Amino acid sequence: MSFSSEVKDELSRQDTPARHCRLAELAAIVGMCGDVCISVTERYRLRIHTENAAVARKCFTLLQKAFSINSDVSVRIHKRDGKNSQVYTILVRSHETAVRILQALKLFDSDGEVAEQVSPANQLLVQKSCCRRAFIRGAFLAAGSISDPRKSYHFEIVCISQERAMQLQALIGTFGPDARIVQRKNHYIVYIKEGAQIVDLLNIMEAHSSLMDLENIRIVREMRNDVNRKVNCEAANINKTVNASVRQTEDILYLAQVKGLDNLPDGLARIAQLRLANPDASLKELGEMLTPPVGKSGVNHRLRKLSRMADELRQNKEEYYYD
User: Fold this and answer.
1) What are the tens digits of pLDDT across the range 44-54?
2) Among candidates 105, 272, 118, which has minimal Cα distance to 188?
3) At the topology level of CATH, where does 3-206 sit?
4) pLDDT for 134-157, tens place per residue?
5) Residue 296 in contact with residue 287, Cβ under 8 Å?
6) Cβ contacts of residue 101 below 8 Å, gap of 6+?
7) Residue ranges of the domains in the chain?
8) What is the DSSP string of 262-279?
9) Which residues sit opposite 284 in a β-bridge?
10) Helices (H) and strands (E) in the chain — how many of each?
11) 274/268 Cα distance (integer angstroms)
């Protein structure tokens, strides 16, 4: 089972005690994956489609507890991209019951017509903080997903319209996380890519077990990344030291061959001899070998001076050669 499925399974088993929260959660699910069927005789039926058994279970439970009804549930096999998947359909056949549900979910407009599917949910349903939590939870159950946190951090909810996406973004924002919106083909995606904010969002939806799993994974990932950063930094420093030592040694050997180290000033001759004898030593270690000891900047100054002298000799030799 994927991490996303585990989160949905946990949320589907969570009891929503207050009726107003049940309505908010149900409104999000119906708005994301439900539709209203109207017959030629103006009879209503409510259908909710989902490929997730946990979402179907949650929707069935919400209808039962909020309206004391037992809706019909059917399962059919749907073939897509060469793979078979199960599609669950929750159906409310009774016209009177469907009307009662639509009224409770504020899905009738001022003219008594069913609101368009692209319309955002009625704000009366999400006035309370607990109802906003329930609405976000329902939206995620119906049309959301979370990537495996071992690989990346990505939370998203797919909305059918920009208005719905903006409403969901605003509701999430009331709790702190900064969700973004991006258009993908004909849909609008409300997403979060920051690990800490996804943890906050799991807490908002009250997926506490999944939150702890994600936190444990984040701790391990951050420790591993920290170790890798330190190892890479050490490796880079070692490479830098080795490369510098090689260049310095080449310059000193060239000076010894062309000019002779005995012809150098005492300070430069001594540091040149120490570098040749200790090619792996750091600047600090070379400085401590001198009497009296010299700091890193002093050692670096002397070695740079030796390199400049070698470069000047090479330049003069090239000019002599071409002349």
Assistant:
1) 888 888 888 88
2) 118
3) Endonuclease I-creI (3.10.28)
4) 999 999 999 999 999 888 899 999
5) yes
6) 26, 46, 63, 67, 92
7) 3-206, 223-322
8) GGS-HHHHHHHHHHHH-T
9) none
10) 11, 8
11) 10
